[in-house]
Amino acid sequence: MIRLESLTKRYGSFTAVDGIDLEIAPGQLYGLLGPNGAGKTSTLRMIAGILEPDGGRVTIDGHDVVRKPYEAKQRLGYIPDRPFVYEKLTGVELLRFVAGLYGQEGEDVERRIGGLLRLWDLEDWGDELVESYSHGMRQKLIIASAFVHRPTALVIDEPMVGLDPRAARLLKDLLRAFVDEGGTALVSTHTLEFAEVLCDRMAVIASGQLVAEGTLDDLRQAAADDAAGLEAIFLKLTGGTAERELAAILTN
Description:
This protein is of the alpha/beta class and 252 residues long. Helices cover 40% and strands 24% of the residues.
């Protein structure tokens, strides 16, 4: 379980995340939606322990990320929005290094590394330096690294960036299998089709604040439109309808 309690992050006088409360239960694929600058990435980085909150707290399976970072991060897999990796390592070495950070090594880890490389069509590249990988291949490697230590919770920032259609389909199936087996997954995405089709629950944030949360039907109620699709709901809740109307005027 991932729990956010009055989570707050400030950059100087600017409040990027403003007292967000959320609970993502085991077995849920949960979507975090919002326009650019809404505070999504800052929220995910606080969950991952990369940023320290200025207020509130994050717990993963009951462990406070700030007070008990080792216990919390042992349970977490994190996929950032950009695949920054150690380019002078091979794919196998990178996955082995990540597993080692979690105190895992030996035959079981080596089998898991081999399986993950095969899963993402990187088996033939496992002994090549990461600097020779394409952007999409690096993204696949980062995804593999998030699973190598068998986490119970996943935090993912814009997972589809750089993936070809086959890899995107594979990731969707992998995330569904992960939560069906009791895992907890929080995914920040601008791909509303992904969220509408796959996510069990969603939260919409704007200007750092939570504006709606729940199932698609709950969001429809929040938007006062029982028949709307997620795009229309998103625009209504985040104030984007004016931009859409302007675009329509300019293109007619």
